[in-house]
Design goal:
By secondary structure, this protein is an alpha+beta fold. Helices cover about 20% and strands about 45% of the residues.
Length: about 220
């Protein structure tokens, strides 16, 4: 038995090493703090096309103009209704069937296809200035995605991409002047003011102290 155990340990280490080599490494989370993704289509309810992409943040730059050689699509989570005051959900999925280039920590990288970005928007309502034109919607959104990136000269790694901002949608029917479109404008994440952070810390300390005293009193209470 003593001879078998070292062999099993060696085989386990070898299997672990092979798995590590074959599997993508887990990378740090990267946050988008500025930029835009713009999508549009010929009609509400159809699959839209992306026509602008610019994502930037600490250690990240991803940009594309989506010409005939590089394209992407956008699918709504639900089909909006063009009616004044109607509820609308600007959530959806951005999909690129082609790899997308990026710079990560000043190194050239390639995001493997398919590239999928999940947009989660807060419920909002349409504001329409007329019967057939001028319907708009604005809502805060968050972005969440996992991309498989291959750095120049490296092996694939998983990048967790997050971000937030404001989605502005022009959901008017097709006209000669414009077509329906949505722009997802990224913004830096809001951080609490120093006074707010101090208040949160104080509340946490007070709550913790009360819990400690309550548990201590229960232990020494005579039966």
């Amino acid at each position: 038995m003593s001879r078998v155990r070292p062999v099993l340990v060696s085989l386990s280490c070898l299997a672990g090493a092979l798995t590590w080599c074959a599997s993508p490494a887990l990378a740090d989370t990267l946050r988008v703090t500025s930029g835009v993704i713009a999508v549009g289509g010929l009609q509400i309810g159809s699959q839209w096309s992306a026509h602008e992409m610019w994502l930037e943040g600490p250690g990240l730059l991803m940009q594309s103009g989506f010409d005939e050689d590089e394209f992407a699509f956008f699918d709504f989570a639900s089909v909006p209704m063009l009616r004044r005051g109607a509820p609308v959900d600007l959530s959806g999925v951005f999909r690129s069937p082609n790899p997308l280039g990026a710079f990560v920590n000043n190194s050239l990288a390639l995001a493997s296809a398919p590239v999928m970005l999940q947009f989660h928007a807060s419920p909002t309502r349409l504001t329409c200035s007329g019967f057939s034109t001028g319907c708009t919607a604005t809502a805060p959104f968050t972005l969440d995605a996992e991309l498989t990136l291959t750095l120049d000269g490296g092996r694939p790694s998983i990048m967790h991409l997050v971000g937030a901002g404001t989605a502005v949608g022009d959901l008017s029917p097709l006209s000669f002047e414009a077509f329906p479109n949505i722009r997802y404008n990224f913004e830096p994440a809001a951080t609490p003011e120093p006074s707010t952070l101090s208040l949160i810390t104080t509340i946490g300390l007070v709550s913790g102290a009360r819990g400690f005293l309550r548990r201590r009193a229960a232990r020494v209470r005579p039966k």
